[in-house]
Amino acid sequence: MKKYIAVFMLLFSSITFGGDGRTIEFSINDSWIFYKDSGDKPIALREIGDREVEIVNLPHTWNAEDAIHGATSKEEGYYRGPAWYLRKITVPAHYQDKELYVFFEGANQETDVFVNGQFAGGHVGGYTRFVVPISKFVQFDSSKQSADFELAVRVDNVHNLDIPPLSADFTFYGGIYRDVFLVATEKVHFNIEDHASNGIYIRTPSVSAEQVEMDVDVQLINCGTTDRNVKLETIIYDPYSKPVVTNASDITLAAGQKLTAKPKVDPIHNPSLWSPDSPNLYRLVCRLYDAETNQMLDESMSPFGCRWFSFDAEKGFFLNGKHLKLIGTNRHQDYLNIGNALPDYIHREDIKKMKEMGSNFLRIAHYPQDPAVLELCDRLGILTTVEVPIIDTITESEAFKQNCLNIHLEMMRQNYNHPSLIIWAYMNEVLLHPKYQKDKEKQKDYFEKVYEIASELEALTRKEDPYRYTMIPNHANLNLYKDTKLTDLPMIVGWNIYFGWYKGEFSDIKSIMTEYHHTIPDKPMIIAEYGAGADPRLHALTPTRFDFTIEYATRFHEQYLSALTDFPFISGINVWNFADFGSVGRVDTVPNINNKGLIGIDRKPKDAYFFYQAALLKKPFIGITAKTWIRRACVESKSGKGVCMMPVEIFSNQNKLELFHNGISLGAKMVQEHNKVIWDVPFVDGNNILRAVSSDNSRVEDCATVRMDVLPIKLDDFPVAGLSINCGDYRFFYDDILDRAWLPEKVYIEGSWGYIGGKVYAMEQTPRQSFGTSQPIEGTNCDPLYQTQRIGIKQYRFDVPPGVYEVTLHLAELTGKMAASLPYSLDGFDDKKPSITKNREFTVNLNGTPVIERISLAKDYGSFRAVKIKAIVTTEADEPLLIDFVPLNEDAVINGIELNKKL
Ligand code: GCB
Ligand code: CA
User: Has UniProt tagged this entry with the keyword Hydrolase (predicted)?
Assistant: First the structure.
């Protein structure tokens, strides 16, 4: 619906296009007055007075800031309620003869539109488009060249039991977060009032390499008071913009009549087929003319593609008769610092990055997204599934069901013609939170209600579109979905699996998926989600499950991709997720963020993105993972050498690579399993420039520059950078705000430095994690540093040269009432168990002098809060620097230590 040319047409309409009556549409995104207010009636612009308002541009959300920072871990702290947008619109006088509409690409989630103070229409649901007719509220004065009116839009994102989604692992940012257009049509036009579609529905009931049969519905409306004779012209343009099929038909529309025309459209011969490799796009142009004057009344262009496809329960997916393994990601629609209010540019960039990764498939989860998404999938050749946001649970009300059905229908009508779209999905893990756990009778009724909604959605989908597939994606509880018959309904069953992340091992995947297939042998299967969290700030040489390191997620994807693509019965797979996304209340290493993306919420790639590129791309590719870890600290490998050996992984689809380090060749190596080759690189203090080149005949190369602090084993020459040690942790942590690298802890050895005594703290209540906690920590952005701790610590010892030192202790009490729980309590892990606060007390002595006495983290600061305490200590010649922890009640703890030399 984005024709920017239309703005142009508006400006010059009376001169250039005055006689041409086709539909005009232009965005009205800028300069809205915005304020939060719970009133039901709009105020006029002149009544604003000294009310506190902001001037905002659309796309806009009021949760960009509070969904990340304001949402405290204690409660759902982001604003969920009503707010108003007001704006004056001026239109030229000749619009008096037109029909006017306001077209919204999306507003979350209940919207009421007022024109000049009068209610004009509303919409329910945060992810589909809608249109509000406004002509009858606009007054034209024939003595003036233009007319003004005031538009007031009330948007509310409050939790509403009758509107899906009710609960989900993502943030329900409120606002008019997509583009808004003013549309001016002739009285007779293609019916955008039909669920905010373009009124044109293209089907290709039979496609072969020789011929394509066309079946087109055109919805027309006559808003005028007289009967009209019109001519409908349909022209098919081939991918080279050549008209190949033209038809015309005559239609009569009575005053006020809506009708669905079925124009005869001749078949296309020898079509250029649409596929991921050759996304050939055809265009159906529909033109409507007044039969008497021959004046054009409306024009609409719809993309379509000539392709045929099928899913087979045993053999997988076929496109145009050829087998194709569907591989790609899921996608959410938000971005760093701007919530869901994305300019189209980022939507397009995302799809481009998917193509650059080698994706041929995208699950648009968990809701329909901006029109730019499917437009680009059509153009770049990425097959898609799109779904309505019925997630985790339902409400057993008639209103809930009707809203589900209506939103689903809107989704279908609005996206009907996209050739990239092959599956209509609905419900995601809808039995994740089945109600009435304790009352099995009631639960039975509940399951029946879920089934009823699902079967009505299924029936609606098949009736609306007999040529695409349907899917329900479930969480990995085979029997639950089978027993409730939810696996019987759709044409494809989707599974969201997380073995090796929330629970289990990677090695479980093969046997489990085989069992799933054998239990439901006649249904095609898609792995609609699989993924692992990765915080770009965390790295490990020995990654383990649920540690949120970049490396663990990369191992996870290596295993999954090879295991899942081995099975012919798995038609397609979608990584959860393309990019990190906001999820208020989620507690991992970055509060309110789900970091299972292959790229960050800022769209910077993580290592696993390079892995997929190497595995999927046909054109030569090299990706040095060191690009994602460019600021590091490590301890030298041999005392006094100033060199730290660290493995560097490179992903490539080449046979052989050569790696250069600061200009020196480290030799050539064959690329191994998972398209990977590893070099041990002798990192030096300062900049390390890595360059990998292909030894094959292609000219591809990749570079990375890593800035390294190589820290000495013996501190005779105390490092200027000081020591920053992440205690109770094997992970390297990078503080991206201060650009500072933290080392994993190391045990004291003679003549060196490190901890003495204690053990790595592991919070008992989180069985997923064998160390630390994933509770959010208040008062810091460095959660991982404080989430891990050495408990029962006796001493930290540094054998330093004489001098004056500053010691900073980083502390946090990790017992106490848990601030939050994972939104996903998969398979009975109960993270909500309150734990008792340990009232620990300890004293810290610096070289024998008590400096911090009787500290009680819980009492003095509270649980899960970052505490930093600095103190000075002077050492004499041959005297070590000793930090003694003296427990007075319970064990002493330490989460991080910094040591710097002042003199
Ligand atoms: C799921 C959900 C998705 C979550 C994801 C996760 O199964 O469908 O919405 O974000 O798991 O990361 O836990
Ligand atoms: Ca720590």
Answer: yes
